[in-house]
Structure formats: C-alpha cells, structure tokens
Specification:
Layout (H helix, E strand, L loop, with lengths): L2 H13 L15 H14 L5 H22 L3 H34 L7
Helix pairs in contact: 1-4, 2-4, 3-4
C-alpha cells in the first residue's frame, strides 16, 4: 500500500469519529438556551491541545514504523506510514476527548445526554 492510500485511510479513520454532538432528550428544553449552552461547552474543547497530541503521535508512529521498516529494508517508508498512522490515531483520540468534554459539560448543566 503506498503512502497516499495509507494517509487517506488514516485521515478517514480520524475524521469518521462518532457523533460529534451530544444527543439530548429535548423534552422540556428551551432550544435557545440549549444552543447557548452547547456553544459554551464546545468552547471548553479549545483547551485540548490537538496539535501537540497529533505531533507526539506522529513522532511515536514514525519511530515504530521506522524500526519495523528497517527489518524489511524500508526504514523511510515504514517511518512515513507510522507517522501518518500515529498522527491519525492521536487526532481520533483528541476528537473523542472533545466529545467527552462537551457531553460532561452538558450533563453538568442539567441536560439528559443520551449518548
């Protein structure tokens, strides 16, 4: 599999994360207040340092991929594939963390979060 295919697959895996917004039981909820609370809760996710996590994941993946590639005589290719995979996995984990923060925040504000 070439680098472009691996990169596309990894980015899809990172971008195809679960539902980004909480599913909330809207019975008795003021929609205007809900939208304001949701926006406030999403603002907290800016504190999650996505770039740092992705960079660390890419570096770790490159090291592992390079070591595996060295066994087959393709250190550079292994490092490239590892970097893409590691960065994508870290991006996916950061997205899950953001979703968790939003859901916890909404629960803390009294919403009945279903997912």
């Amino acid at each position: 599999m070439d680098h472009i295919k691996v990169a596309a697959l990894a980015l899809c895996a990172a971008g195809c994360a679960a539902n980004p917004d909480p599913i909330v039981d809207m019975r008795g909820v003021d929609p205007v207040m809900y939208e304001q609370d949701l926006a406030d809760c999403k603002a907290y996710t800016r504190e999650i340092q996505t770039e740092v996590g992705v960079a660390k994941g890419a570096a770790g993946g490159a090291a592992v991929g390079g070591a595996i590639g060295a066994i087959g005589g393709e250190t550079g290719r292994g490092a490239g594939i590892g970097a893409v995979a590691g960065g994508a996995k870290s991006a996916q984990l950061n997205e899950r963390e953001k979703q968790r923060v939003v859901k916890n925040c909404m629960r803390g504000r009294g919403y009945r979060v279903l997912n």
